[in-house]
Design goal:
Largest sheet: 6 strands, mixed
Order of helices and strands: HEHHEHHEHEHEHEHEHHEHEHEEHHH
Structural class: alpha/beta
CATH class of the largest domain: Alpha Beta
Distance between the termini: 22 Å
Bound molecules: iron/sulfur cluster
Strand content: 15-25%
Number of strands: 11
Number of domains: 3
Strand order of the largest sheet: 4-3-5-6-11-10
CATH superfamily of the largest domain: HypD, alpha/beta domain 2
CATH topology of the largest domain: Rossmann fold
Shape: globular
Number of helices: 16
Radius of gyration: 21 Å
CATH architecture of the largest domain: 3-Layer(aba) Sandwich
Length: 358
């Protein structure tokens, strides 16, 4: 981080803002939230600039019924559950997968979905169910794994997916009556797959500025500077791609093709929020045999809101973690009550870990 550049950016941000104008900027992605906290950016900004965290952590937005479904499949069908590490600590309506593991169930942590191909070929006498969560960023590698499973005629590997799309939830946030966000820091890794144009609707439909940013502290600060400049000037608000070293306007055509080949856009359920139209990628008809919801018969879970947890309001940027009565008491990283306290990119975890009001 070049100290001179940082100082210049901070000086200019201070110069552009007045103490009376509150500016609210939402960073949508959990990696941005984490890096903002780690680098101490908030302490450098004038107090009237509020950085608010949005719904960009895949673990945080995974619905209770998703965890319930995974536990039901595990108990009824004696499968191996494969998952990214954080997911097994997220609770459904009745416990989490870590508890199931403690009871002796076969739950394995993997680091890349591609490991599943070798695992399925080696363990032929058992079915494996992978918990495929994430956003547009993880969807291509999960699609590739499903395609590889089909090519190799693997019959014992299934995917319980909860893959979310960014634009519908951003529409949802901006459609709230209490929404008063002045600008968005858009996730650079999503845009590297989809292209920066994916976020053009923020400018066109909501007349708000947006900046596609990288993940270094300097990248984020340049993004904040760009947004503050636009917010404080009267001219038309724009989407700016400030991460051109990784993001093209039309994204990565190979990754997008993989997504389109394997998934279809469907309505999706978000933790505490409920169904958001067109916000999910589900496995399409061509690859239906790999869809765990098709392969295993389970009860249809109805949507349920846990009223004690304020994750919904935190995810939508309406509350900060400390406004939840459970924060730091019943809910902490050692014993998370809600999903936002589980992952290192969860807003509540970050607020607890870095002792700041994210
Ligand atoms: Fe949910 Fe815990 Fe955060 Fe409260 S502190 S909103 S219970 S994760």
């Amino acid at each position: 981080m070049d100290k001179k550049i940082i100082k210049r950016l901070i000086d200019e941000i201070n110069f552009m803002t007045t103490q009376t104008q509150e500016i609210k900027i939402m960073e949508v992605c959990g990696t941005h939230t984490k890096n903002i906290a780690m680098s101490g950016i908030k302490s450098l900004l004038p107090p009237n600039i509020k950085l608010i965290s949005g719904p960009g952590c895949p673990v945080c937005v995974s619905e209770e019924s998703y965890i319930d479904n995974a536990i039901e499949i595990l108990r009824k069908y004696n499968v191996i559950i494969a998952s990214f590490g954080d997911m097994i600590r997220v609770s459904g309506t009745n416990g989490n997968l870590l508890d199931e593991k403690a009871k002796g169930e076969d739950i394995r942590i993997i680091y890349s979905p591609l490991e599943l191909i070798e695992m399925a070929e080696q363990i032929k006498n058992k079915n494996i169910v992978f918990l495929g969560v994430g956003f547009e960023t993880t969807a291509p590698v999960i699609a590739l794994t499903i395609k590889k499973a089909a090519e190799r005629k693997i019959n014992n590997l299934f995917f319980l997916t909860s893959l979310k799309l960014m634009p519908p939830i951003l529409h949802y946030i901006m459609g709230q009556t209490i929404n008063n966000i002045d600008g968005f820091i858009c996730p650079g890794h999503v845009a590297s797959v989809t292209g920066s144009e994916y976020f053009r609707f923020i400018e066109e439909e909501y007349y708000l500025p947006a900046a596609v940013c990288g993940f270094e502290a300097e990248d984020i600060l340049i993004g904040i500077h760009n947004l503050v400049k636009q917010i404080t000037q009267k001219e038309n608000k724009k989407l700016n791609n400030l991460y051109t070293r990784c993001v093209k306007s039309n994204g990565n055509p190979i990754a997008k093709k993989l997504i389109n080949e394997v998934f279809k856009v469907s309505d999706g359920e978000w933790r505490g929020i409920g169904i958001v139209k067109g916000s999910s990628l589900n496995i399409n008809e061509n690859y239906k045999k790999y869809d765990a919801l098709n392969a295993f018969k389970i009860e249809n879970k109805s949507f349920k809101i846990n009223t004690n947890c304020q994750c919904k309001e935190v995810l939508l940027g309406n509350k900060i973690p400390k406004e939840c009565n459970l924060f730091g008491k019943i809910c902490n990283p050692f014993k998370p009550y809600g999903p936002c306290m589980v992952s290192s990119e969860g807003t509540c975890f970050i607020a607890y870990r870095y002792k700041e009001e994210v």
